[in-house]
Known about the structure:
Its main location: membrane. InterPro entries: P-loop_NTPase, Rab, Rab1/Ypt1, Small_GTP-bd, Small_GTPase. It holds the Pfam family Ras. One of its GO terms (molecular function) is GTPase activity. It is found in: Cell membrane. The chain is α/β, with parallel strands linked by helices. The protein has a single domain (about 5-180), classed as P-loop containing nucleotide triphosphate hydrolases (Rossmann fold). It contains 6 helices and 8 strands, in the order βαβββαβααβαβαβ. It has helices at about 20-30, 70-80, 95, 100-110, 135-145, 160-175, and strands at about 5-15, 40, 45-50, 55-65, 85-90, 115-120, 145-150, 195. The strands form 2 sheets. The protein has a 6-stranded mixed sheet, with helices on both faces. It has a two-stranded antiparallel ribbon with strand order 2-8. Helix 5 (about 135-145) links the parallel strand 6 (about 115-120) and strand 7. The longest helix has 17 residues, at about 160-175. The radius of gyration is 16 Å and the shape is globular. The N and C termini lie far apart (about 45 Å).
Amino acid sequence: xxxxxxxxxxxxxxxxxxxxxxxxxxxxxxxxxxxxxxxxxxxxxxxxxxxxxxxxxxxxxxxxxxxxxxxxxxxxxxxxxxxxxxxxxxxxxxxxxxxxxxxxxxxxxxxxxxxxxxxxxxxxxxxxxxxxxxxxxxxxxxxxxxxxxxxxxxxxxxxxxxxxxxxxxxxxxxxxxxxxxxxxxxxxxxxxxxxxxxxxxxx
Length: 203
């Protein structure tokens, strides 16, 4: 057992471009927010260590972009993931409609028992809302996954979303043999992700 942590969980953030995945990650790890944030091209990740029920959990959180030229690369990141957060923008109906496509990718590439969480981001933009809480909650209930709305800008439910995911994975791992506990395949990253300026965090 690594003396620095009891569990190492690999989490993925997936969803359409511009829904605020990078902003959620920045808010959770660094507790900061930028109106105009660099758009991830390819893959980026951050690490945060948290405490739950007397256990130290190291969260390795991957922000997965969706460009066709990176499809082979990004599909490989599903393997070994313990939890996947599917993010849509509550002001963008198309991003919610595309959640089904993202779920299909999870079914195709991720392990069968991976933990999932549906997140509707940008809930602070009430006057621009296109997807109601009730609609998204009904959809999540229908497919049997947890759901919550967040605001990376106001920090609403961001901490809660990641901590809820960590808790659900820990509970699942605790019921499995120790040999399976939170030791994902190591992925080596060479160089830095290519970045471009965009305004993905706010409308």
